Amino acid sequence: MYFAPIFHTLGSVLLAFAATMVLPAMVAFGYGEMDQGWTFLGSLGLTVFAGGALIIATQGERPLPRRREIFLMALLIWLLVPAFGALPFYFIGVVPGVTDAYFEAVSGFTTTGATVLSQLDIIERSVLLWRALLQWLGGLSAVLLAMVVLTPYDAGGMQLFRSAVPHGERLSGPNHLRQALATMWWVYVGLTALCAALLWAVEMPAFDAVCHALSTLSTGGFSTRDGSLTAFANPLAEAVIAVFMLVGAINFTLHWAVLSGRGSGALSQDPELPLLLTLAAVAALAIVAALMLGGSHGPLTALRHGLFATLSMLTTTGYYSQAPVNWPLFVPLLLILLVLLGGCSGSSAGGLKIFRGFLLLKLGRRELDRLSHPHGVVPVAYGGHVIDDGAKLAIWSFFFTYLFGLALLSLLLAGLGLEMADATTAAAAALANAGPALALLPGAALYETMPDAVKWVLLAGMLLGRLEFFVIFVLASPRHWRG
Predict the structure, then answer these.
(1) Which domain does 29 fall in, by range?
(2) Ranges 10-14, 252-256, 259-263, 407-411: which has the least confidence
(3) What mean pLDDT is predicted for residues 406-418?
């Protein structure tokens, strides 16, 4: 095991992360939140010290990281960045303890959006910006994770997307990370800026527009208000956010291809986007019809809130344009299924991913066909290519691992005192990185009232979901360390 490249990269990541704390510090001083501003600068100093120490300790010649180092590097980044991101929450005092501070930071960085904070309307603006910024950084990190780790190392069928990764597939881990960041940075920043500008143009206050843009493109779902988007009662803002939630749930290499003039070829080779749009349309029609038949919504109201809820949950963002009360039972059940499925690969969305769901249906149909034609050869194709046995095994393995993880988390949460319905929904929300989905249940428990043990289980679920299980399972394999 070569630790030098791991710790050197971690140090560089922490230094870059520390630089982002300048933004909430500036906002704090600008709004007269002097204590909070100095707290952010103090947290920045601690993060710089840790990152600098790691870099200094690993100076000199460093071997290129291998598969095992890259996987461990990914895990440590997702554990340590939220640890330093939790410092402002803890030292400012918006949370009662270390567990809540780390929970809020992990929830933000994994773009889960589960929050232990209440009374958001009166919380300092610098803190609200920091929450949104954590999600924005986490969304970008999720895209880079897919490009640098999951796709090149064939995690859960992601080898199907090697052709979509722009440049640098054979670079070393840190160099590939730098190449991917250089490719995606301007796309991610540009789309975020466009979202913020459009929200401001439809009369959302400037600060709220920036925070919601950060949380929307990352499909994170943190809001600046307790009532989520219901507090704004702005249909035009909901429309803008709906569009950019969808944008955030699309493979970012497609955005890169379109913006760089290579869109026609990339779009024609990737069936995942049409599948996402088709599923969204069909699910929205079903939910709108259910709301209308339930008698509590007129046609236009049902269309507005039904379409928004569909996109919000399918993209694993978790915003609400209306509190989900008096909705027919069919609606939250379908929305929870959409949450578990999630968005496209290579996006900031969580969940199982559209391509895996589609291929699982095709593989299941193939097995049924083989019952009637046991000697027939029934190939399964995706994007014009026949799926090999390795990819099939990876997809089935990921699916059953996902189900096992959901069942295990549900049982653990129930054993720690949650009602079974709450436990199952909270487990699904954590694994799919869609924390606000818990509110789909009438009278569901609040994250802030849950015991610390429950929060740590949910933390594990968020990280498992964001790292797509295999990063952690590979690290736990003795064969991985021998080979």
Answers:
(1) 1-83
(2) 259-263
(3) 96
The DSSP bridge partners found for residue 80 are none
**Angle formed at CA 336 by CA 139 and CA 248, multiple of 5 degrees:** 25
Mean pLDDT over residues 211-235, rounded? 95
How far CA 427 is from CA of 93, 175, 408, 432, 434, in Å, comes to: 28, 35, 9, 8, 10
In the predicted model, what is the mean pLDDT of residues 245-249? Answer: 96
Q: The tokens of 179 are what?
A: 């190449």
332: tokens are 């939250």
Is residue 458 included in any domain, yes or no? no
For the chain, give the number of residues: 483
Q: If 0-12 CB within 10 Å is exposed, 13-18 middle and 19+ buried, where does residue 448 land?
A: middle
For residue range 65-114, what is the model confidence (pLDDT) as tens digits?
677 778 888 889 999 999 999 999 999 999 999 999 999 999 999 999 99
Domain count, the chain: 1
Q: Please give the Cα distance from 79 to 336 (Å, whole number).
A: 27
What distance in Å separates the CA atoms of residue 278 and residue 326, rounded to the nearest whole number?
A: 27
C-beta of residue 32 within 8 angstroms of C-beta of residue 96? no
Degrees, nearest 5: CA angle 377-380-384: 125
pLDDT tops 90 at residue 333:
yes
Note whether residue 65 is domain-resident. Answer: yes
What are the pLDDT digits (tens) for 451-478? 999 999 999 999 999 998 877 766 666 6
Tell me how far apart the alpha carbons of residues 322 and 345 are, in angstroms, rounded to a whole number: 29
CA-wise closest residue to 435 among 201, 228, 239: 228
Q: 3-class SS at 381?
A: strand
DSSP per-residue string spanning 5-55: HHHHHHHHHHHHHHHHTHHHHHHHHHTT-HHHHHHHHHHHHHHHHHHHHHH
Which three-class secondary structure state does DSSP give residue 321? coil
* Cβ atoms 339, 428 nearer than 8 A: yes
pLDDT of residue 146: 85
Give the C-alpha distances (Å, rounded to integers) separating 156 from 49, 146, 202, 304, 470: 37, 11, 41, 36, 7
- Is residue 3 domain-resident? yes
Whether 71 is in a domain gets the answer yes
pLDDT digits (tens, 9 = 90+) for 347-363: 999 999 998 899 888 88
- Identify how many contiguous H helices and E strands the chain contains and give both numbers: 21, 2
